[in-house]
Amino acid sequence: MPSVLPFPPRCSGCAARSRAVCSAFSPEASAEFDRITRPITLARGETMVWEDDETLLVGSIASGLLKLTASLADGREQILGLAGEGDFVGRPFGTRSSYSVTALAPARLCVVGRSAFESFAAAFPEVEHALLLRALDELDRARRWMLLLGRKSAGERVASLLIEFAARSPGTEIAFPLTRQQMADLLGLTIETVSRELTKLRHAEAISLTDLRHFRIEDEPALRQRAA
Fold this sequence. Notes:
This protein is α+β, with helices and mostly antiparallel strands. It is built from 8 helices and 11 strands.
């Protein structure tokens, strides 16, 4: 009878484990993943992967928030999405990244070299299955984002983004991980429109702004109704 391995201590104490791709690993795969990965910390503004560079590292986010960005021909930056606790970043089974991955706040990750991860995935079939499910989830998220940008009003877009911020924050006082300008770029709006819609939500008492960098949800049903 095969022995049953305990989950590694580092994994057992991880707050992101239930949402991370490694939650689907067997104890044997988890033990090997723990052996080949190493924890790293990214400071705010530090980049893990650069656009068009060879992908050297892949990994799972234990805490923090990162932005995925691409550059336009004139040098402007476009935010493609956000990655937070439990998300998997990097490009396994490929060579170059089509976007940069940069920390918006201090972040902790478990990372491994891309080639080592590919060998690990080949040895444990459930890893490739878990990655496929995660990729399908990301595709669904991208489709929802297309709906937001293509059909939702400015107010609905801002409310939807606040709900996403709240889902990634453990407390009642929620940080704005993006500047007003970054929120505008992400939502396809102007900075004036973002500020105006935040003021509308505050006047409707759906949210309160504790300062320029934090907010509270005062009426969640009202906020979700605004997000359509």
